[in-house]
Amino acid sequence: MAPSNVPSGPDATPGSSRSSDGTTTAPGSTGASAPDRSASSAPAPRPSLSSRDRAKDFDYSDEQLGVYRSRWRPIVRRILLRGIFRGIVRSAVTPSVEVHRRVRSIRGPFVLVANHTSHVDAPLLAMSLPWTQARLLSTGVAADYWYPHWYRRWFVRWFMNAYFIDRDGSRKNAGVSRRLLRAGVPILVFPEGGRQKTGEMGPFNPGGAALAASTGVPVVPAAIVGGYEAMPKGRSWPVPGRPPVGVVFGEPLVADPDETVTDFTARIRASVAELYRAHHDQILGPDSARGRRNRMQDEKRAKSE
Prior knowledge:
The structure is a single chain. The chain is of the alpha/beta class. 37% of the residues lie in helices and 12% in strands. The strands form 2 sheets. A 7-stranded mixed β-sheet has the order 3-9-8-4-7-5-6, with helices on both faces. It has a two-stranded antiparallel ribbon with strand order 1-2. A hairpin with a 5-residue loop joins strand 1 and strand 2 (24-25). Helix 8 packs across helix 10 (261-284). The chain starts with 16 loop residues before the first strand and ends with a helix. Mean pLDDT is 81; it is low at 1-35.
């Protein structure tokens, strides 16, 4: 049969013929059904970020995680982050924020993945993310650094809704990140495993990608631009002059059904790297050392093509 949108009767194409079943066949056609090219060439629909179906397997009964979903703690955290801390940040650096429109449509848990430049990255990200998505955001922090001292422990718990990650090989806090996602709490991870020492983004560990793929939640890639220049490792306060620091949230990513964790990790890292590269000159200026290096790389790439 010809496609149903082929005209018939007085509107039929000259030279067409009518078959016994009343359908019209164009000249030179065998009468076989033509493939729907428009359907096959159409891009696959992007996965929903707000569908209620995403919450069907979540477990809200874990009482040990109730503090992370508290109703009153986010109110205190909002005052601390978006009132006090924002004022401190603006007195030390010149911040800017750019958010992809699809980030605002996310409902429920997700994995926020970013490059790691300084100790203020986590509260800076939480302060910059739209509040609907940031309200319950929980940050994984190194237990060996943040837990032993009460004032550090207090800071990360109240400013970052933090949970602790073991870096010493112990399993004391194993599985907490997965349990948080299953309980509807979004998490922030720094897959480089530590702060950058040279300003160059390192390889990504696959943990964040594996968590997102296994729980079916999206990944929000984010790039912090200028954080290392403003507060490199070893400094306890940003350099003088209110240097620019930008936070860029990219389009959420969802693991494909047949995508390996290794490939998904590489795709996440590529997204963060591209966000950083695309916004570097806008935030830090084209005359910065890295801006000049980016231009040289772009020129080499253009010549090779």
